[in-house]
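Sample A.
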Amino acid sequence: MKKITTLLFIMVAFSNLTAADLLVPSQYSTIQAAIDVANTGDVVIVSPGTYFENIDFLGKAILVTSTFHLSQNPLDITNTIINGSQPTDPEFGSCVSFVNGEIEDSILKGFTITGGTGTKTYNPSEDLYFRTGGGILINESSPTIVHNVIRNNEAIAEAGVFGAGGGGIRMGFGVPVIENNVIKNNTGGYAGGIMIAYCEGAVLKNNIIANNTATGSFNGGGGVYVDWEPITLENNTIVGNYSGDRGGGIISTGTTTIIKNCIIYGNEAAVDADQIFKRFGGNAETTYCNIEDGFDGTGSEEGNIDEDPEFINTNNYYLQSSSPCIDAGNADPNFNDIEDPNNPGNALFPAMGGLRNDIGAYGGAGASEMLSVTETFLPTKFSIKASNPYDNSGLHITVAKNTQADIWFYSLLGQPKLLAKEISLTEGNNIIKVEIPTSGLVIVRTVNGHSATTKLFKE
């Protein structure tokens, strides 16, 4: 009898340690409800749908994933949406929060993250509050963020805080894993795409960081903003971002940012340094990168080029077969692309050419075709032009096909105002009459998530 009792005790104990699958919405109506009851090692599996939530991992080492984790179908990413636009408390507007000491085993995978507005966050190094992390907030934690589309989030509201930024992601005081994500069309007062503060040793790989906007606070920084401790950017594609001040692509503040095998191209800044801005003694060590107009930084700058990347389109940023970025990354085998098992000696698509690293998000051993899930953008030119100083005569908006768009105005302090909603734009040039209250940024956002930005001065 004693042996049977002991065996039963061991079986019960073992079952309590076995990870469980928690299904949303069939078992739990919300993602947060599943997280609330999850134990270490559990997997929260979320079926396709839109979930109006602002979730908190609560310090748990769990995997929260869409069915992409099982299917490997990128459509499960675009069809499983965490929309943070309806927070119960506007001070906690991030779509997903990691603020309780989460570790690498705390994993967010396979979602579209959208509609977030950021969370009031304390920065102990400056003894100040900021509104940060429109899409994802990471504070004093080191989670894993993989295979997500993080789009159309913002951190711009400065009421009650010293500043607002990190429209897509804010990571601070930790060493998160940020890999194989699309971070696009987000807006911040500073750090439109991603804010990285005091994260020494963090390595961000194989991300597309595109078409994000910083209105200009703390010098702006449209794509990536690095603060005070060194991190590494490896095999990322950082393109089409805009800063209302400096650093359209990257700002490096008070530290040397290590940049390897990255495309940094087509970014714009209203004042200075379209691609990389060195702030408060900051710098960048760039090797085997394709940087528009080049860059004068620290280190050898070995292998850098300045050539049109030759993207197939601005949907997924695949490289054309003639791209100078193919087989132009670091030649060390440690950086090699994945080999195609059916074509030995050649790279597995979406990498191209031989096994040598391709510059950009599709190069290296961590590349994934998942990045192709980005929504279709307008196939050709999308632009805004207007008289400067602006006399309210109208915006000249050029689009490649018929679409609808919203027009937003952001003051130089980051205060938003909707100028026009769901206006119809026809193929070619459109003149849209709008009035602006002061000097600032005008952003046109189409229904498919594309955006164009211009800075206007009030007459």
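Sample B.
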Amino acid sequence: MAKRQGNPAAFGRLLASNAFESVADNATRTLLPVIAVASLGAGTAEVGLLNALGLGAFLVLGLPIGALVDRLPKLRAMRAADLARAALTLSIPLLFLLGSLDTWHLLLAAALLGIADVFFTSASGALVPSLVGTNELGVAYARLQRVSSLASIGTPAVATAGLKILAAPLALVLGSGGYLCSALLLPRTTGHVPPPATGPRQRFWHSIAQGLSMAVRHRSMRALLLSNMLLNAAAMLGNSVLAVFVISSLGFSAASFALVGTVSASGGLVASLVAPRLLVRMGIGRLKIAASLGCVPAVAALALAEILPGPTLAWVAAESFLWAFMLVLATVAGAGVIPQLCEESLLGTVMAGNRFFTLGIMPLASIAGGIAASTLGIQPVLWAWALLAGFSALPILFSPLRTWHQGPEPQGTNA
């Protein structure tokens, strides 16, 4: 693929937009379950459905939306998604003030928010390569990850403070304002004109099939897909047992578990800060392999927390920090691979095809982890978590990606 020059001003506006979008997303995810339970008396079934609707949109609609994004002006799609989410989140406090808010309103809003989120995420991921130089992709994705990590740390505290002042539905105005600011801060133009497509445009569903095929059949993309699937499966195994292990098995309070979550977010933030320098020093392939292998001792520290010397909670916190640190490094290391192997006109579709598999494994792994923990116990699931994370290094190790520094070697670009 041809080298591209960057547009630092436009990318700076995209960073600012993503900062507010991340704040709005985190606030909305924090507040919707609280509103459902505290204001509407929802039970576990309703809350579970509410939490699943966002991920469900990626699974059910991710592929067609990815193909559609390749046919739309990406900045307009992102701005429309922001404005739609701002209106949706604002509708909930308005319905509350009118005395008309019901659980089905929250479920409908969550479903529509999930669809808009898929549009924004698909367009944003496909837009980044047009705003930065080809050799700066890794650094660009690391900066976006840093914004997300900062939002993960700060937003829940702000949302909690809002809950102390306002009724839960009214606090959702924070999310609406964040989405509106995100829309206003998006760059007006990328300054980059994509090369004209050659030949007739492919049919919509044929382009989806091509995106899926390329994600699976291209040797380097397939290695990345398998690695990310294993890593995401490991993460969901961990999520299925972590709270029960820390609170029930180790006997710590819910407040202590929440503190561990803050430590974990801090690990992700630190990783996003050092990732650009590590990418330059180690290269994409070596960093991805090292980060995947580094997940193993992180989870082992948790599994052995009760018998290791020193305070048990300190080992739990260390695991959370190191796991998030390694997970973000692995994510950032692989983030620039697909844009360097895929034509820009197909980027949204191919990324959506990749997400179909890497996100699709997550609910399956979560269910499997819960079943395994109930039948075999939590400890075997913890060790399976560690082993799957370590195995995620193997697809990279046995593919051309292992030799990548900032991009593919000439012989490594073939399918």
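B remarks: The radius of gyration is 21 Å. DSSP finds 16 helices and no strands in the chain.
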